[in-house]
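pasting for ref
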Amino acid sequence: MSKVLEKVKSLSAEYLDEVIGIRRHIHANPELSFKEFETTKFITSIIESMDGFTKMEGLETGAVYILEGKNPSSKCIALRADIDALPIIEKNEVSYKSKKEGIMHACGHDVHAASLIGAAKILNQFKDEFEGTVKFIFQPGEEQLPGGASLLVEKGVLENPKVDKIIGQHVAPLLDVGQIGYRKGIYMASTDELYFNVIGKGGHAAMQDHVIDPLKIAARIILELPEMVKEKNTKGTPTVLAIGKIIGAGATNVIPGEVTMAGTLRTMDEEWRAEVKELLKDKVNEIASEMNGKVEVKIIGGYPFLKNDDVATEAFMIGAKEYMGDEHVEEIPISMTAEDFSYYSHQVPACFYRLGIKNEAKGITSSVHNNTFNIDESAIETGMGLMAWSVLKELT
């Protein structure tokens, strides 16, 4: 295997400039969730320029390709990258800055897609040596409910051939370039969207006896819901409840008749997740009733929690240490962020890991979903090589 490892590293270095160019093209031409038409065409043009890849049909955006080795029915490993961008105005001054005002690859999906293309190029050089099949999933719509992963699962992306294991990669602004992070078991949170429409009775701010102030009701909801959740969460399940948006269109002397609120609920236990949603409904209605108002509640179910299979993640970790060295592979804590890769993780053994992209010396420190987000592009060499090596460890 040492010769295989060295060849993967050599190919990663050889392809790096080309794959950086691919990343920069995708970055400069971002597209929002489920609108990734040109991105899909671009990815397709590159993959189909190589021999040996078979395309899964029936997708509007995104692309799935299969690469068969010897004895292709023996085992199937899937690699996944998301390809959509975010509605953010980019502030970076770089040659590959977004050409689309108000749209930016601020979460690293350009990096994920480019790395997966690089891994495909590497693995294509081994198709006469490995046993089994590799499935490359360029997935649309990670940033928008219901999540492209859920739709691809419904379309059978994990079947024909049946996927035995899936590996996903995500950039990590908190990890230095040259590092990767892993975690076994439950790793990322479920996510649900909360919408409350608080209804009172508007009027003149100086005539308090004649109004039912929905802003005061909303204030109680903001303050009391987290305390209620904390009190009822007897198992201590990691949970986040936050209201991130409130609109009450009044004025200095006008109490509005309605206030709209939006927030998020995140946790890591499906039983508690279902229970707490009912508790929220009861509590906001109780608060509104006590203050002679009403509240309309809408909760949109989002992604489930993400779980990394212990065996799959252990195998990945061992391979990563062989590829990078023990000192470059670290265990990371749970995260209350969410990822639609979680849908795959509830269907087949999965490993979702983090790719370090931070370089303080170069000023590359911005978090994801930030208008100055960028990466140290040498991370792409690690990203594509490690994915390819992880597959070859399984199939050779």
